[in-house]
């Protein structure tokens, strides 16, 4: 006869061996003294008649928002039903029931265990995220120590997706709040970055609620910022520039008179933003705030500035085949989105080797930014990610001194950029930034840029001259037509293409360039969250895109190889054959609506 106590003993022995009964953890067995958990389980009986408890509930003192629940069955035939709704009979069914109640207030790792011996033991594991009805398969069939579970949990794509969507929602909420308090759009991102830097100072973090007046708090935050800048080994000339960018904090009326508001703001940023940064390292968090804060700004500061969505910065790093020897240059770096993604990829590849990681941070990330306030955000972004030594320069990337310094000192071999988009007639051409980046790369370096589709389609004028000049000195390897609404969250709405070049190798006559039609990245627009990967399609799509690019695959309706010159249109649409069998009535209606809207907006 099956004996469930045997299964429980096996699990208990595993937990003891893995350190769960040591200080720092609480393990409840078939009961719970935690009032919050107990209340959530009051209707969780597997028979539907009141309170119910799993065999084990585990909670960490350090990460109390995550709990582990374990349900045991002796008979491996009773591990999982086909419908997963026989809660009292099957291990998987039962543990998912408990998780559905507990996930109203917690993130939950659910473990179903069946079998009376270690040899026959069957284990299934799932992850339920707070306030989400769905559950996901999680790690392999082995009980792990808490650190391994936690690392898998914070790196889970579903966890990141939920946290990122929550961050986007908070950016909108915060923007409305700061607008109400009459804090200028141009100062909002700087304020957030200043608070995040100050929160790295332990003395400030522990004492910011203890000031008598708001003005004292403003002075305290500026002092904490100054200390952190000096501790980050930033050159004195940079520190002076950064300090002046934050000086408005001490003169802003709201911040110096409303102590309760200022304290609540710091508390919320620590809770909702700082925790995101610590959990999901190397992500352009400040860039998301900058996009949101400038979207409705009634001034020219946002014009032409299109910050690249994080999933695209990571995509470009894969396309560039970045490795630990890569030296990455972004000559118009904005808030450092490309540089942060590149640094993240290299650090992951370094596999914990501290010397390599230190070298990456000190010598292999190079950026140039022209605008003062965005430069401050770029540098503060690096400081927040524990990298104050990165070589972010304030200045003009076209200056001979800057070009010489980057070429001679850093010798970059990867260029990633999203140049300022030309708005006015006398603005600098996007191709000029691409040329500038290519000129600073080592021979056979790789440059990937995302630019307006008009650059790819140009067949006359100044842009044609730039195309001719670039092909005379560098090779056009690939061009990808990007999703039409890629920059929906930015102030500038523009259809774009991504271009890939090999530096200092003239484009060979007869060479075919690879063109990709990358219009669907799986992202959709969601109210109050913007354009997001709501259906979880992106990772699969990204892998398909990267593979087809690296292998230069020709796929009907997706990609094509074509010999082109400067006079050619550099886009897949010009060379792919249309599969008319896939067109629907909705396609015709959508195009007609877009055409009517275009004519209306352009007063035709």
In words, what does this structure look like?
By secondary structure, the protein is α/β, with parallel strands linked by helices. 44% of the residues lie in helices and 15% in strands. The protein is built from 22 helices and 17 strands. It has helices at 4-17, 35-40, 91-102, 146-154, 157-180, 185-198, 202-207, 214-231, 236-246, 253-257, 259-279, 285-295, 310-319, 337-350, 354-363, 372-384, 400-410, 430-440, 453-457, 461-473, 538-550, 585-601, and strands at residues 25-29, 56-60, 66-73, 107-114, 122-128, 135-137, 328-330, 365-369, 391-394, 414-417, 446-452, 475-481, 496-502, 512-517, 524-526, 530-532, 559-563. The protein has a nine-stranded mixed β-sheet with strand order 9-8-7-10-11-13-12-14-17, sandwiched between helices. Strands 1-2-3-4-5-6 form a six-stranded mixed β-sheet, sandwiched between helices. A hairpin with a 7-residue loop joins strand 4 (107-114) and strand 5 (122-128). It starts with a helix and ends with a helix. The model is unreliable at 298-303 (pLDDT under 50).
